[in-house]
Amino acid sequence: MNISEYDSFAANHPLDLSQLSIHKQTVEASASGIQYFEVYAVGSTNKGFEDDILPNQTATNEDHGGSQIRVAVIQYGYGNINNATFGGQSKSFSESVYLCGTLGVDVHNCNPGETVTGWLYYFNFSGPQQGSFSVSSNSTSSPSYWSDSIYIQ
Predict the structure, then answer these.
(1) CA distance readout (Å), 67 to 18, 23, 28, 71, 79
(2) CA 48 to chain CA mean position, Å
(3) pTM metric for this prediction
(4) Per-residue pLDDT reduced to its tens digit, 89-114
(5) Degrees (nearest 5) of the Cα angle 150, 35, 133?
(6) Contact 72, 89 (CB under 8 A)
(7) Which of 53, 102, 125, 138 has its Cα between 20 and 30 A from that of 149?
(8) First vs last Cα of the chain: how many Å apart?
(9) 108-145 burial code (b ≥16 CB/10 A, e <16)
(10) Cβ distance 98 to 69 under 8 Å?
(11) Segment 140-149, tens digit of pLDDT
(12) What backbone phi and psi angles, to 5 degrees, belong to 94?
């Protein structure tokens, strides 16, 4: 699968945010600082998207590989995401999607007029087929530093 086929696959197979389960945390108002930050899904030209990654999971369930790796990171709350690293490469996010709704209840892609409460960030890597993926973000309020990592097989 080449990069254009991979992009087409990703565009036609969006992540299912209805499956986002975040341990019954709720928020009463619009998001302020980061309240949740996790690797949400890993996609590859060999395996497609693995979107059942659990909080605190240390490695992917699938053996991804392939020429392209795409990682989705969910950030609920306001902050500034940093570059991600994978296989010796450091990259900024390639795409972001606005998220709306209440944490643990109804996080979804925003509709016009809704208040943004989070983001889904996508990071694209070409070359490395396995290794440690790490990403962090600086929140607008305490705790100010959030990070997550996963070993991509």
Answers:
(1) 29, 35, 43, 14, 31
(2) 15
(3) 0.81
(4) 999 999 999 999 999 899 999 999 99
(5) 15
(6) no
(7) 102
(8) 18
(9) eebeeeeeebbbbbbbbbbebbbbebbbbbebeeeeee
(10) no
(11) 999 899 999 9
(12) -95, -20
